[in-house]
UniProtKB/TrEMBL annotation:
A single MF term (Gene Ontology): DNA-binding transcription factor activity
Species in which this protein is naturally found: Mucilaginibacter gilvus
Domain HTH cro/C1-type: 13-67
Family annotation (PANTHER family): HTH-TYPE TRANSCRIPTIONAL REGULATOR, METHYLPHOSPHONATE SYNTHASE
Keywords, alphabetical: DNA-binding
The organism's place on the tree of life at top rank: Bacteria
Cellular component, GO, one term: cytosol
Name of the protein in question: XRE family transcriptional regulator
Length: 104
């Protein structure tokens, strides 16, 4: 079984941009944001809104769900790192998701 190559949301969108040989300013203009904000997204300093992620997905012709998942898992990972939680927290969260689903 091969392991999936892990990347952050910022790394993913930067790679999409670089692969197409597009400068940040052109992507930022299309997204109607400042190029410095796009740079922050690429460096994982800021996280864009779901609506902006969907616009990025449309621009690059990729599945918006994949980019949204990438951004959301970044948020979870950074929170775990910041709070210095361990992997037990993830297992507990998975169990809690299943519990909440069963209540609906």
């Amino acid at each position: 079984m091969s392991k999936r190559k892990l990347t952050t949301f910022g790394e993913s969108i930067k790679q999409l941009r670089v692969d197409r040989k597009l400068p940040q300013r052109k992507i930022a203009a299309y997204l109607d944001i400042d190029a410095s904000l796009l740079a922050k997204y690429e460096r994982n300093v800021r996280q864009p809104s779901k609506e902006l992620i969907e616009k990025i997905a449309t621009l690059f012709g990729v599945d918006s769900k994949d980019l949204i998942n990438e951004a959301f898992t970044d948020k979870i990972a950074y929170q775990i790192l910041e709070e210095e939680f361990d992997s037990k927290l993830l297992r507990l969260a998975e169990e809690k998701v299943e519990y909440i689903k069963s209540k609906k």
